[in-house]
Write a structure and sequence with these properties.
Elements (H helix, E strand, L loop, with lengths): L3 H10 L1 H28 L8 H24 L13 H7 L6 H4 L7 H29 L6 H64 L3 H20 L29
Length: 262
């Protein structure tokens, strides 16, 4: 039976497919770490209290990148080049979502509007990350090789999402509500397109590596398109709602360190 668990188990069991999966994940997390570190450095004076939380966010992302690299190293694997069509983070930037790298490489302070853009982008992408890690946690939380990593990353993504909700609500109450909702909608609609395209590209690469028959690849592609159709119709709305999180000040402390895998 074709299921999310059996699909990922197949990717996990193959060295080449696992190396590609971890390399894609590590690259995206490391990129997110760099972006958050730059945003924390450039945060406007009026939002200086946010800087430590952005720094914590970036440190968590860096940690996740190291975890995925460590999982490869544990199996005697090395990172492989990330195909451009599978680079979720860079494709989002290409579509104008989030803060452009050209802005982040300059030493000019950001504006509050930039912070709204950053948090809206993070709220949408952290929704996706939180859901994906929750799915992996459901099926692999007790896996002897990846279970501990899955649980740690899932907890972090949950905290990141809570932080985005809390800070966006704070800015909404400060008068930025209309701007936040507009930016959230733009980000969500762009993200679901990029996620569809990246999912199709990743499955195409995995299919070639694992030798999937055309029928199986076609079923998976149809499923990805069906998810996109649902998200384009109504599913995107889950990415733009804001509610007070159960855990307040989720990024108020120092980042935890990456565990050793050996």
């Amino acid at each position: 039976m074709l299921s999310a668990k059996s699909l990922f188990q197949e990717i996990l069991d193959g060295d080449e497919s696992f190396a590609l999966f971890c390399s894609i994940a590590a690259s995206g997390e490391s990129q997110g770490g760099w972006e958050n570190a730059r945003i924390a450095t450039l945060v406007p004076r009026s939002e200086h209290d946010l800087a430590p939380k952005i720094t914590r966010h970036g440190a968590d992302e860096d940690k996740h990148g190291r975890i995925f690299t460590a999982l490869m190293r544990k199996r005697g694997l090395t990172p492989v080049p990330v195909p451009p069509e599978t680079d979720y983070t860079m494709l989002l930037e290409k579509h104008g979502i989030g803060l452009a790298h050209a802005k982040l490489t300059r030493d000019e302070p950001l504006t509050v509007r930039d912070i709204v853009t950053y948090l809206a982008h993070s709220r949408v992408t952290e929704q996706r990350a939180s859901e994906q890690m929750e799915l992996l946690r459901k099926h692999f939380a007790d896996h002897p090789d990846i279970g501990r990593a899955v649980r740690m990353i899932s907890d972090d993504e949950h905290n990141h999402l809570a932080y985005c909700h809390e800070e966006l609500l704070r800015l909404a109450y400060a008068g930025h509500g209309r701007d936040i909702q507009r930016t959230l909608r733009e980000c969500a609609l762009a993200e679901i397109r990029v996620y569809r395209d990246v999912s199709l590209a990743v499955m195409d690469h995995m299919g070639r590596i694992l030798g999937w028959p055309k029928a199986k690849s076609a079923v998976l592609a149809a499923g990805i398109h069906a998810v996109y159709a649902y998200e384009r119709l109504v599913g995107w709305r889950r990415m733009v709602t804001l509610r007070a999180p159960e855990r307040r000040d989720a990024l108020g402390g120092p980042a935890t360190t990456a565990p050793e895998f050996g």
